[in-house]
Amino acid sequence: MDLQEQLKKLFPNHEVSIESEPIAATPHELYVQQEPMICKYEKRKGKPTTIISGYEGDDEDFKVLAKEIKTKLAVGGSIKDGEIILQGDYRDKIMKLLQEKGFKTKRVGG
What we know:
Blueprint (H helix, E strand, L loop, with lengths): L2 H8 L26 E8 L2 E7 L5 H15 L3 E4 L2 E5 L3 H10 L4 E4 L2
Parallel strand pairs: 1-5
Antiparallel strand pairs: 1-2, 2-4, 3-4
């Protein structure tokens, strides 16, 4: 007994549609704020660290933005307390990426 026969027994009134419905993929728009995002440099435990803070949008958008930055720069990092913490000093590259997306940025430290 194949799967089609089993499904017909379970759902006798169901009609199989031949056409598949196209799923429209809508690109996700990030919230672009008026206040600049702060991009600062710190040394934590002797290692260079870049911290991005000041995002006012949704937490999910912030996670999407962090993931995109980490993949484009091929660096490790995390999100804690509304800040993106990246390993290494990438302020110039991050600021350029954020400005291309329409964000205002502000460089802090060193």
